[in-house]
Amino acid sequence: MKTIIRPFCGHRTSSAAWAERLTGLDCSIRDVDLYTLDAALLGSADALLIGMHMDQRFLQANTALLDDYVAAGGRVVISGHIAHPFLTGLSPVQPLGGGIADLTVSRAAPHPIWDGVALDDLTFRRGVAGFYGHAWHSPPEGATVIHTLGPDARPLDFIYRVGRGEVLMHGGNDLWSFGGDDSTRRLLPQLIAWLVEARP
Q1: Residue 125 — very low, low, confident or very high, per pLDDT cuts 50/70/90?
Q2: Can you give the pLDDT at residue 200?
Q3: Which domain holds residue 72?
Q4: How many CA atoms lie within 13 A of 74 on its CB side?
Q5: How many CA atoms lie within 13 A of 91 on its CB side?
Q6: How far apart, in Å, are the Cα atoms of 30 and each of 25, 60, 80?
């Protein structure tokens, strides 16, 4: 069984409500205090979910630890706006313009996490644009860009390799938080399925 660690920072979170949506996936989700992060904890994890409300200064102070984890084959999913880059390949958040056109999500490459997820459901939530993403980050060389924003195709979702591992960067609200009555409900189970799949 694969173990996915989801740190919390300050306010304790629980992934228990995910159980029904993850039925059939051979994994367990552990909610742990971010400040207990160390090599032993990472050694027990097949993947990490780092949300948008984490202490990035603490994470940045542990860049070497996180880099080593990914290089050894770990997978990390990061959501939010990066103010203090804490992994090799991350860069600070960049603002967008103010129009709705700048918030329109386009798909640059297919990926199983977003299989069957409609672009309109990413762009709009209850008729309002920008919940999925309203800023962007420069990807490192060699990254695969999955989604972009606006006519200038600013990168929103991208995946890149560090050693034997992978980093998925989503520059918006926590990728696992989407789960309404539209196609974004597919994101959580498909994300977790990707994290636990066999790796070459």
Answers
A1: confident
A2: 60
A3: 2-196
A4: 26
A5: 14
A6: 15, 22, 20
Helix or strand (DSSP H, E) at 147: strand 144-149
Q: Which CATH number characterizes residue 190's domain?
A: 3.40.50.880
Please choose, from the candidates 199, 196, 189, the residue with its C-alpha nearest in 3D space to the C-alpha of residue 15.
189
Q: Are 149 and 105 in contact (CB under 8 A)?
A: yes
Beginning with the edge strand found earlier in the chain, give each strand of the sheet holding 2-8 in spatial order: 27-33, 2-8, 47-50, 75-79, 165-170, 154-162, 144-149, 105-107
Structure tokens at 136: 């962007």
Alpha helices by DSSP H, the chain: 39-43, 56-61, 63-71, 119-123, 187-196
> Rounded to whole angstroms, how far apart are CA atoms 6 and 16?
12
For 63, what's the count of Cα atoms within 13 Å in the CB-facing half-sphere?
Answer: 11
Tokens of 44: 């027990």
Q: How far apart are CA 152 and CA 200, in angstroms?
A: 35
For the cut 70, the answer to whether the pLDDT of residue 199 exceeds it is no
Q: In this model, does residue 195 exceed pLDDT 70?
A: yes
The tally of domains found in the chain comes to 1
pLDDT-derived band at 54, boundaries 50, 70, 90: very high
